[in-house]
Design goal:
Mean pLDDT: 92
Bound molecules: ligand MV4
CATH class of the largest domain: Alpha Beta
CATH superfamily of the largest domain: ATP-grasp fold, B domain
CATH topology of the largest domain: D-amino Acid Aminotransferase, Chain A, domain 1
Number of helices: 17
Shape: globular
Low-confidence stretches: 471-495
Largest sheet: 8 strands, antiparallel
Helix content: 25-40%
Number of domains: 3
Structural class: alpha+beta
Radius of gyration: 23 Å
Number of strands: 20
Length: 495
């Protein structure tokens, strides 16, 4: 493999190109109108324009990407995460064009793309699963009887959903019919597929996922777990490896289950098997993600492996160079996703120019980003600016480094989740390791953040006075606009 095309943008495109470069492989970037000046375009050996800014007209245009691959003589495509990375139809088109997709087979993507077929594949291997229905609900009365059997609260999930999309909690049997109708119509409009199933609702879960790698020779290993319980509205904010809660025994069991799930679909490449863990440390299989994930760096830091290099070697047909017994956890890693979002304004995306952008440095700090000072964050794509990753000999050291790195990070011109990250890292409950997926909604309020500078406090106070004095007829929308434009935009980073 001498040249690969990276069908992505931002930090992950750069991350992939760096590993390719270290392997002596040339890189081809693709870019949209909004990314003409982007770092991934400058970093690549070649770059091809693929369409207008909206991803539906550029990064999701499989045909244009395959054409760019052929035109540049690249032999393989790395899809990164998001965009076309889990699109089985695209994977088939890549194969049909005589190219290699650096990822799993279209068949594995297809099975894991549907939660019910994923569960059916796992069921054959005695993988623990949350009690519920094993098939799509066709008879609502029968489903209701099953819900009573399982016990309320229950969850209705869309088979075509995933990552929390298309889920509904039903607390009482009286609500079942109504929620069912809503869930089905939502699933139809969101996914074009009304298939839904039910599961008992695990009320205080932890989200634990296992990284797996499979080669084309039938070898599959796991690279231990990542814990991703710190999230808000199904968007992960902080991830770590290893989990602070797993015992060596549960880790082994979960790892073996993850490998069995991967084996059920002859998994090739890097994948992640997602579980939830209840209060009694029982774990249940939820779904499998058939891509390289955003949070892969924490696994890299504790295993010493480069997951992108491993993906490329697997795609070249090489066998894994190690067995499960060769793999060990060393130290502890933390990741904070730095989003261009305003934690004081319900985490609304905050776009604009990075007036100051200085990343933290030093021992145990890694920053995976795709921006430089002076650049604008485009509105068209995910608002993630960077991933701040720290490593230490143990969890306490990884946390201390994270706090130090957050303090060193300088971002002005836009609001970010850095201050929010510091709130979590310094919270007793997080430090104790005794938390669940409700951490953010339980403990974070907009007044949890340290206040900004004196000048900002003054402007905020003035804005409040103006708001109090204004005639009642002024709408709350203008109130919001005042807050956004008068002082929030130019405030320096909370940290
Ligand atoms: C659940 C659950 C509780 N019980 N399933 C959300 C993401 C998707 N992969 C599945 N999710 C959940 N499934 C049962 N039976 C709770 C969640 C859930 C969750 C899971 C992991 C991380 C964060 C979460 C936040 C809310 C709900």
């Amino acid at each position: 493999m001498k040249k690969i095309l990276i069908a992505n943008r931002g930090e992950i495109a750069l991350r992939i190109m760096r590993s390719a470069k270290e392997m002596g492989i040339k890189t081809v970037a693709v870019y949209s109108e909004a990314d003409r000046e982007a770092l991934h375009v400058r970093y690549a050996d070649e770059a091809i324009y693929i369409g207008p800014a909206p991803s539906s007209q550029s990064y999701l245009m499989g045909e244009n990407i395959i054409a760019a691959c052929i035109a540049t003589g690249a032999e393989a495509i790395h899809p990164g995460y998001g965009f076309l990375s889990e699109n089985a139809a695209f994977a088939k088109q890549v194969q049909a064009a005589g190219l290699i997709l650096i990822g799993p087979t279209p068949e594995a993507m297809e099975i894991m793309g549907n939660k019910l077929s994923a569960k059916a594949a796992a069921l054959k291997h005695k993988i623990p699963m949350v009690p519920g229905t094993e098939e799509a609900i066709t008879d609502v009365e029968e489903a209701k009887r099953r819900a009573v059997e399982v016990g309320f609260p229950i969850l209705i999930k869309a088979a075509a959903g995933g990552g929390g999309k298309g889920m509904r909690i039903v607390n009482r049997v009286e609500e079942f019919m109504e929620q069912m109708e809503l869930a089905v119509s939502e699933a139809i409009s969101a996914f074009g597929d009304g298939a839904v199933f039910i599961e008992r609702y695990v009320s205080s879960p932890r989200h634990i996922e296992i990284q797996v790698l499979g080669d084309t020779h039938g070898n599959i290993v796991h690279l231990f777990e990542r814990e991703c319980s710190i999230q808000r509205r199904h968007q992960k904010v902080i991830e770590e490896a290893p989990s602070s809660i797993l015992t060596e025994e549960i880790r082994k069991e979960m790892g073996a289950c993850a490998v069995a799930v991967a084996r059920a679909v002859n998994y090739v490449g890097a994948g992640t098997v997602e579980f939830i863990l209840d209060e009694n440390l029982n774990f249940f299989f939820l779904e499998m993600n058939t891509r390289l994930q955003v949070e892969h760096p924490v696994t890299e830091l504790i295993t010493g492996l480069d997951l992108v290099k491993e993906q490329i070697k697997i795609a070249r047909g090489e066998a894994l160079a190690y067995t499960q017994d060769d793999l060990k956890i060393n130290g502890h890693a933390m990741e904070l996703r730095v989003y261009a979002e305003d934690p004081l304004n319900n985490f609304l995306p905050d776009i604009g120019t990075l007036q100051t952008y200085k990343t933290p440095k030093g021992n145990g700090v890694r920053v995976d980003d795709g921006f430089e000072q002076g650049m604008e964050i485009p509105i068209y794509y995910d608002p993630m600016i960077a991933k701040l990753i720290t490593f230490g000999k143990d969890r306490d050291e990884a946390i201390a480094r994270m706090v130090r790195a957050i303090d060193e990070y300088e971002i002005t011109g836009i609001q970010t989740t850095l201050g929010f990250g510091k709130f979590v890292m310094t919270h007793d409950v997080f430090i104790s390791g005794q938390f669940d997926t409700h951490f953010v909604s339980k403990y974070f309020h907009s007044d949890s953040l340290e206040s900004g500078t004196d000048e900002e406090a003054l402007i905020a106070a003035l804005a409040a006075i103006i708001a109090l004095k204004k005639p009642k007829t002024i709408s709350s929308a203008s109130d919001q606009q005042l807050k956004n434009t008068a002082w929030r935009k130019n405030r320096t980073q909370l940290s």
